[in-house]
Amino acid sequence: MNRKIVTIAGYSYHVFHQINDETATKWVLLHGFMGTHHDFDAIINELPGEVMTFDLLGFGEKANIVDDPKRFEMAAQIADIQLILKTYNWSNINLLGYSMGGRLALGFAFSHNELINQLFLESASAGLNSALNRKKRRAADNERIKQILTDFHEFVLNWEKLPLFATQKDLVATQRQAIRAQRLAQQPQNVANSLKHMGTGVQVNFWPKLTQLKTPTILLVGELDQKFNQIADDMVTLLPSGQKHVIENAGHNMHVEQPNHVIEVLKNVSY
Q: Which residues lie below 8 Å from residue 145, measured CB to CB, with a gap of 6+?
């Protein structure tokens, strides 16, 4: 895998690119909250064509502190991704986003659908569809932000205990330890600002716009993730070109829990 530093608006992105075979397909993979490009280590070598992934703004063990918190806003990150793609002269991409990265991928699709061939959303939502729910989420995230800045280690331990990640207890110990270590290696200030400016509570409500998204969209959800199964059911009824694929015996983070099943869907889904 080739690494390149791409500087966008003063921030140095660590971009990783590799060619797996001569297939013309181009893949761009966006990780989740407190993740890095390593999130996709189990699938990146199996995708046809060329693959690009990178540590999103403020994340990764080599990330610098982001001085301007507003750089974490979705619109700013969408602009950064567009410039990264321009650096590589990439278009007609298959864009895969996981969780937070999925919300970002959806936002990118609304802004730059001309660059996307297919959109893959893994355990992702279209935001919260009421002002009251967004207010409640911001209040909850503000409490998390306080803990991030005062006791980051405790925050990480509490985060991994969320019901959303309950199925990860079945991973082997080395996998669980690697996930924890990746989270603990993050910059707490960046993590806090990401949650404040890119969290679901401040995200634009994309639900009313889903009917306008012409991009072929594949929703991947884990069989055991009841919350996001329901979200995917609701989204697919609104998407003009939407499909839902359930990954058996997986929860929220299915590319880690069941990578082979995810690879099979990514390689074989078609419109």
A: 192, 195, 196
